[in-house]
Structures are given as C-alpha cells and as structure tokens.
Amino acid sequence: MSIVQPTKSSRQLAGQNVLMNRKSTLVKLLAGCVLVTGLAACETRTDRAVKVGNMLVTNPKGNHPIRVSKQMIEMKIPVRRGDYGLNAEKKMELGSFINRYRREGEGRLVLSAPSGQPNEVAVVDVLNDVRDHMKGHGIVRQMVRLRPYSPKGEPEAPIIIAFLGYKAVGPKCGALTRDIGSERNNLPAEQLSCANQANFAAMIANPKDLVEPRDMTPRSGERRDVQWKKFVKGQYMGRKKSADQKKTLSSAVGG
C-alpha cells in the first residue's frame, strides 16, 4: 500500500511567493536607506565645512559688522568776554558743519545759547553772527530751534549747534596672534577683513547710506521741454544740419 504525500495548494504557494518577495523588497529598502544615510552624512559634513569657510571669507559684514545709530552731532563755539562775533576760522568751521547738516541731518538744527553768565553780552554778538552766517548758507528760520541753557561753573560757556544724524561705529579688531599656518581645516583667521570694515566706517561720507539709499535728485528737463514744445507744434524735432553736413558722400570724395 503506497502512501501519497499531501501536496500544497496553488493558493498556498502563491501566498508564500508574495511573502518572500515582500521580505526581499524590505531588505533592499533597508540597505538603500543605510547607504543613502551614510552618503547624506558625508555630504553634510563636507557641505558644512565649505559653507563655514565661505562665510568667514566672503561675509565680513556678519563677522565684523558696522553699527549705525542716530546720535546728536554737535559743534561748540567758545565765547569769551569781549568777543564781537565769529572770526574767519570759526566761520569756515561753521560753514562745514552746516554743509554736513544738509547732507546728513534729520530734523531741525538746535541752537543752544548760554544765559545768565558773565559772557552774556558777547554771546548775543556771536549769536547774531551765527544766524547771519546760517542765512547765507540757505538755513531759514524754520529750520532752526533756539533754546537757552544754564551752564554751571562755566564763565565762558560755548554756543552749541547740534543736529540729529547718523553715526557709524566700526568693529574693534584684535591682534592676529593665532598661527594660521597650522590650520588643518584651511580656514581664515577670525580677524580677517576686520581692519577693512573699521576703516570703511571711519571714512564713509554719510553713514545714512548704510541704512537706506539716497533720494533721487530732480530731473534736468530743459532739453525735454524744448522737444516737447516742438512736438506739440508739429515742428521738426531733429537737429538742423549745416551746409557742410548736408553734402553727400559722393560730393565729399569728389565722385
């Protein structure tokens, strides 16, 4: 009597094949994830080093920033007893200060005059001279605010002219003490470009330019107005040629 072994049905075999395919796919996905993760980690480390190096080299504004703030910019005119106005040197200084106010100033000029001091008579004479000098530089009365002040212990207190403007303060640079020759990562020194930023802050003509762009000046419309009048009248808008310019090329070469 022979014993017949039971055979698996086709449905069972199909289920086992699907399970084996799923396991194989899962193993491949896990291997791929490990490989991608390793490559991403290597790329991140390399990319980070490059970014840090570029930042130190090409970003001096972030490493050594210039700080711009609004401050009162003032000029002091000392007044001694017996003075009768501004001398030539003080007039030149005042003229330069007014020009700076017109370039950088915010708001009105503040003119502070001492009162109740032994030099009060001289202050009045110098103050009148200051006003006349300002008027000559185009500073009208509405642009000036006059206020008295009471100095303590200053018999020759000065007249103070001030305005609110921008001031740029550069970074404080340290000494280059680290030996960058032994830098394994090939990164620049921490003080790189610090001196340039400090010099730039000291030399800039108007610190306000670091905050916002300047306003545009009015257009020069003289030529445009002439052409527009010709256009309205239906006239020829081109430039009139002289007799020599009207000659043809053939006549110019004798042909």
Give a short overview:
By secondary structure, the chain is an alpha+beta fold. Helices cover 45% and strands 15% of the residues.
Q: Measured on Cα atoms, how large is the radius of gyration?
A: 40 Å
Structural shape: flat
CATH homologous superfamily grouping of the domain at 67-169: OmpA-like domain
How does CATH name the architecture of the domain at 67-169?
2-Layer Sandwich
| CATH class category of the domain at 67-169 | Alpha Beta
Element-by-element helix/strand order: HHEHEHEEHHH
The number of helical elements comes to: 7
| Count of DSSP strands | 4
Helix content: 40-55%
β-strand amount: 5-15%
Q: Averaging pLDDT over every residue, what do you get?
A: 76
Notes on the protein architecture:
The longest helix has 49 residues, at 10-58. This protein has helices at 10-58, 60-63, 88-104, 120-136, 194-203, 222-233, 249-253, and strands at residues 67-77, 106-114, 144-149, 159-169. By secondary structure, the protein is of the alpha+beta class.
